Inverse folding.
């Protein structure tokens, strides 16, 4: 079973309270999501393997550590996932970015795919799928299946908010995927929205409502 890692660092929790507030407009929403994503990336990358290399400082030669092995890929689920990419790239600028376009059908709440462009070596990379909201889990589970169909095997998921229903769905469909999340909210409402949540992440990011 994949792990659920809740990132309750005070800075993340503080910024999360600001982003939830309905008075927070798109500019601040984008900045806060960007900052939180950078802080979360620190934890998501905690277990990346290191290797020892030899370098020369102005004083002496030394053996020191750099990140080894698989390279990283970030895969935002369009469109709200885009708001999490730059914060991660600031910490891991060499990561490549793939995009998966999905939207939830408002009637069935099931994900509909409309776009996919991945790095050509995505199947050799450690992938972080990002989306602020894990509600029913339909979009996340579909995006992960999409990646697996293309041969990707090392996948972790990073969300700002999750509902228990979404966590359960991803865990049962993809037991190999760890989920990093800033908070797990109470429940979904009748329209599949996380409650208390923050509303519609895409609309709040881009001011479309
Ligand atoms: C939101 C959100 C997730 C999805 C979560 O996207 O960003 O992708 O809903 O819901 P689920 O867990 O029930 O699938 P939305 O479909 O609103 O598309 P958007 O990002 O284009 O606004
Ligand atoms: N998508 C959102 O943007 N917010 C929710 O609460 C659920 C799905």
């Amino acid at each position: 079973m994949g792990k659920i890692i809740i990132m309750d660092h005070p800075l993340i929790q503080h910024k999360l309270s600001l982003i939830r507030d309905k008075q927070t407009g798109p500019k601040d929403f984008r900045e806060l999501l960007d900052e939180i994503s950078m802080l979360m990336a620190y934890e998501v990358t905690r277990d990346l393997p290191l290797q020892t290399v030899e370098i020369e400082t102005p004083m002496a030669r030394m053996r020191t550590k750099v990140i080894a092995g698989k390279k990283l890929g970030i895969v935002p689920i369009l469109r709200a996932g885009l708001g999490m990419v730059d914060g991660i790239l600031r910490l891991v600028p060499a990561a490549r970015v793939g995009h998966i376009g999905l939207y939830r059908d408002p009637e069935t709440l099931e994900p509909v795919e409309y776009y996919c462009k991945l790095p050509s070596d995505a199947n050799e990379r450690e992938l972080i799928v990002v989306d602020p909201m894990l509600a029913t889990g339909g979009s996340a589970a579909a995006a992960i299946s999409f990646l697996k169909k293309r041969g990707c095997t090392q996948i972790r998921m990073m969300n700002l908010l999750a509902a228990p229903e979404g966590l359960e769905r991803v865990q049962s469909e993809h037991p190999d995927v760890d989920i990093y999340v800033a908070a797990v909210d109470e429940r979904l409402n009748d329209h599949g929205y996380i409650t208390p949540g923050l509303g519609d992440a895409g609309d709040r990011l881009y001011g479309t409502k």
Notes: Residues 80, 133, 135, 192-194, 197, 200-202 surround uracil (ligand 2) (CB under 6 Å). The two ends are 38 Å apart (CA to CA).
